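Worked example 3. Consider a protein that binds ribulose-5-phosphate.
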Amino acid sequence: MSKPLLQVALDTDTTAAALKVAHQVGDIVDVVEAGTLLIYQEGMDAVSDLRAIAPNKIILADAKVADAGGHVAKVAAEHGADWMTCINAATVPTMAAAQKEIEVQVELYEGWDNEKRAQEWLANGVDQVVYHQSRDAKAAGQVWGEQDLNSVKKLIDMGFKVSVTGGVKPEVLKLFKGVPVYCFIAGRAIHGADDPRQAAQSFKDEINRIWG
Ligand code: 5RP
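Given these inputs, the predicted complex is written out as structure tokens:
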């Protein structure tokens, strides 16, 4: 079974703060994400700046695109992104247009459990999804559990590469033991830590321990 990748989600307010963390964890993580919150503040230039300091990493623009997929994907790719997110509510033509320009990840929030729609994503070459517990749902008390595990397994069985995110901490990873999760995405647990490097290493150690 392949080992899950580790992605740092840089939902910082400034590019300077994101670059500082990227410098600290760049040799530990596999994917560097320009977070939605960062893109809202600094635009796609944040993506270019992260690309410049992490030339050999996968760069994700977490734009959560809902429409004009091809246009935004082209801009993201021109700024150096390898991957870009679309929200699950976007139409299939939006996903397909984006996928022609960049590798799309579909961010799953609500109302995504429609197998016919998910099959259309696959038919259009979109084979990455992000299983997401939203920041606001977590603040309202949502926790990781068996239901999430079953949903992730179902998506993998359908043929998706599944990333897992939303308030993920190293201790959450063992829930997915034996499951080929594609990538774990951690934001605040890394960029909000006193020592982001040590925090990123804790995730890597746990991935290595569980998926050895
Ligand atoms: C917010 C996001 C975040 O990037 C993702 O949830 C990871 O952040 P955290 O670990 O802080 O929850 O997509 O919409």
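Take a moment to read the result before moving on. The radius of gyration is 16 Å. DSSP finds ten helices and eight strands in the chain.
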